[in-house]
C-alpha cells in the first residue's frame, strides 16, 4: 500500500461511497439532528471521534480475538465495544473539555444507536482492510457523514423560511431534499475507480 | 461454545474495567441541582435577584446562600416550581426583593423618545426596536416586564403599564387553601 491508495480510500469514503448518500446508513441522526446547523456540527464531530476509534478497535477485536471460528460473534461484540467506547468518550470529554461536552451534549450517547457506526466496522471486515485502512475508512466514513449532515442542515435551515405548500412542509420536504442530495452525490461516482 | 463465552466475558470484563477506571479517573464534580434550578429560572439575566444572571443565582440557591423568592420575572409560578424542586415551603416575594407586581410591559412615550439607544442595550430579551436618532418602540409580546430599561432612559419616557387580564393571557388561578391549625 502506498500513500495514493490511502488517499483513494479517504476520498472514496467521503465523496463516492458516502455512508449516508450512497450507502443509506445512519438515516436516523441524518433526519433527527439536521434541523439546526450547530447541532449538526456537534453530532458530526462526536461521530467522527467515536467512529474512528470504533473502527480501529473493532479491527483489533476481529483480528486477534474472534478470528474465523468465532465470526458469528462479530456483530454482538462490535455493538458492545462501540457502546463501551461511547461511554468512555462521554466521560473523557466531560472531564477534559466541559465546553465541548456542552456542545455535544445529548448527541454523544445517541451515537450508540447510529447504524453507520456499526456498519463501517462490518464493512471493514467485509473488505478485508488492514489496521491503517480500517482507521482511514472509519475516519473517512465519518467525515462523509458529517459533510452530508452539515450540508443537509444548511439546506433545511433555508427551507424553514421558504414559501411552500403546506403539504410539503417539515419531514416531507426533508425526505425530498435528501433524495435530491443523494442524486447529486451520484455525480461523484465516476471520480474514483474502485 | 466455551471459546465464545470466554471471549464475550473477556470483552465484558475489559470494558467494565476501562469504564470503571474512567469513571474514577475522569470524575467531574458537578452539582446536578444547579442545572435543574437554572432550568426553572426564566433566563432573562436581569439581575433583579442581586446576582449577575440566572446561573449565579441558581448556584447561590443550591448552596443555600439565597432564598428562592428573589426572581420577579419568574413570578409566583417560578417560586412554586423552585419550592417543589427543593422540597421547601412556598414563600411570597421577600421584603428585600422586588415585591409582587401585576404583570406589566414597558411602553415608550414615542413623542418624547430622543433615540439614544440606551434602553436597547439594557433590554435582556431584545424586545426594543429602534436605531440611533430614530424613535424606539417596545415589542409588547417580547417584553418580560423586567424594568431594566426604565432606569437608563435619560428623558424618562419609558413607563411600566400593567396588562390586565384578557382572553389571551387568562389562566386558571392556583387553588388557595387556607391552612388552619388542628384542634
Properties at a glance:
heterodimer; A: 194 residues; mainly alpha; B: 183 residues; two-stranded antiparallel sheet; two-stranded antiparallel ribbon; 5 helices
Overview in brief:
The complex is a heterodimer of chains A (194) and B (183). With 194 residues, chain A is mostly helical.
Structure commentary:
The complex is a heterodimer of chains A (194) and B (183). Chain A is mainly α and 194 residues long. Chain A is built from nine helices and no strands. Chain A has helices at residues 3-16, 27-32, 37-66, 74-96, 98-104, 107-110, 115-126, 131-160, 171-185. In chain A, helix 3 packs across helix 4 (74-96). The longest helix of chain A is centred in the first third of the chain and has 30 residues, at 37-66. The model of chain A has no long low-confidence stretch (mean pLDDT 86). Chain B has 183 residues and is mainly alpha-helical. Chain B has five helices and four strands, in the order ααααβαβββ. Chain B has helices at residues 2-25, 32-40, 54-62, 75-86, 118-122, and strands spanning 104-108, 128-129, 137-138, 158-162. In chain B, the strands form two sheets. In chain B, strands 1-4 form a two-stranded antiparallel ribbon. In chain B, strands 2-3 form a two-stranded antiparallel ribbon. The A-B interface holds A 61, 65-66, 69-70, 72-73, 76-77, 80-81, 84, 87-88, 91-92, 94-96, 98 and B 3-4, 7-8, 10-12, 15, 18-19, 22-23, 25-28.
Number of helices of chain A: 9
- The rounded Rg of chain A comes to 17 Å
Termini separation of chain A (Å)? 14 Å
* Major pleated sheet of chain A: none
Percentage of residues assigned to helices of chain A: over 70%
**Low-pLDDT residue intervals, each spanning 5 or more residues of chain B:** none
How many alpha or pi helices of chain B? 5
Uncertain segments of chain A:
none
Structural class category of chain B: mainly alpha
Q: What is the number of beta strands of chain B? A: 4
Computed over alpha carbons, the radius of gyration of chain B is 25 Å
Helix and strand run of chain A: HHHHHHHHH
Main beta sheet strand tally, sense and closure of chain B:
2 strands, antiparallel
Apparent shape of chain A? globular
User: Given the C-alpha coordinates, what overall shape of chain B results?
Assistant: elongated
By DSSP, the count of extended strands of chain A is 0
**Whole-number mean pLDDT of chain B:** 82
Quaternary state of the chains: heterodimer
User: Which structural class should the secondary elements of chain A be placed in?
Assistant: mainly alpha
